[in-house]
Amino acid sequence: RYATALRQMLLSLLGACVPLFWSLVLLWAVFFLFSLATVQGVATFLSAEGYDGSPEQAKLLELFGSVSGAMLTYYKAICGGTGWGAPFDVLKQTGVFNAIMFISSVAFTQIAVFNIMTGVFVENAFKNAQPDRQSMALEQRRKHAVEAYELHEVLATIDKDGTGTVSLDELMTLTDDMRVNSILEVMGLNIQDARLLHSMLQDLSDSNEVSLDFLVQALLKMKGPALAVDLQALSYKMNVMHERLSKLSDKFTSL
Description:
It is built from twelve helices and two strands. By secondary structure, it is mainly alpha-helical. Strands 1-2 form a two-stranded antiparallel ribbon. It is elongated.
């Protein structure tokens, strides 16, 4: 329980391995396509102008002389290795088209590709951070135990004689004690008819007085709206009762 945050972070990191792989593949493909077009433009420029060995052309060949070198230049310019201004100044001598393509590639990668990759990573992290069924079951049991303990402590205040059981008179004080009523309402319990509640619990426990533990478990079951399984159980019991009454009616009719 105490290492839940660390566990969630480790699961998120492990779950990010596959998106990381495909992100690298996507970046490689983007850099490759832009580098291929840039190298082709540089080659066309040098073929037309001729190589004169000037420092500007030497720098041009250093940065964009090969596809692998151009990919490394794009990676540095986009991912923060170097600013994009220096490669742009070198590349703009080859023409307006290459300069515009370089700026467009940087903008496209940083605005579109990186944001899409971030969205995939965040979505995947949220999915992996969700607790599994075992953790959810453990948390639910812990929550139920805490609620049962707190409810037992609250109801113990109405057990005036300290017998561990609650009589009708003691249960009736629930509707009069505003402090206890407020605590129960905060816990999602609203007892309006204490007499009816005591009568129901008596029928279930076959005793004039109801034990605190039984009262706590009964109140916890009453907490919240009725579940589908509760409605199905009630429907089944009503059907069984209807069949028994029908058989009993048939017997009386036949007499």
